[in-house]
Amino acid sequence: MLLAYDRGLGTVWVGKFEEKEISKILALPENLRPIVIVPIGYPAEKPIAPDRIKKDKAIKFINK
């Protein structure tokens, strides 16, 4: 996915799909099962990256 991005392509991680249907479409042997689908293509627009959360707000140390 990082390589695709580096080449101007967009990707998305899809983890919810009909496993049996995808196995049938791809003619996968029974000992293999699809875990994820990653569509790749040229994006119609480039989204603006969200602001990052500062480290002190993202991490909470708990002392026992």
Return Rg in Å: 19 Å
Tell me the span between the first and last alpha carbons. 40 Å
β-strand number: 2
The total of helices stands at: 3
Helix-strand string: HEHEH
Question: What structural class do the secondary elements suggest?
Answer: alpha+beta
Helicity range: 25-40%
Average pLDDT value? 92
What are the low-pLDDT stretches, counting only 5+ consecutive residues below 50?
none
Oligomer: single chain
Gross morphology is flat
Spatial strand arrangement across the major sheet:
1-2
Q: Beta fraction of the residues?
A: 5-15%
Specify the biggest β-sheet.
2 strands, antiparallel
Would you give an account of this structure?
This protein is an alpha+beta fold and 64 residues long. The protein has a domain at 2-44. The chain contains 3 helices and 2 strands. It has helices at 2-6, 19-25, 55-58; strands at residues 10-11, 40-41. A two-stranded antiparallel ribbon has the order 1-2. It is flat, with a radius of gyration of 19 Å.
Keywords:
64 residues; alpha+beta; two-stranded antiparallel ribbon; 2 strands; 6% strand
Please describe the topology of this protein:
Elements: H1 2-6, E1 10-11, H2 19-25, E2 40-41, H3 55-58
Outline of the structure:
The protein is of the alpha+beta class. It contains 3 helices and 2 strands. It has a domain at 2-44.
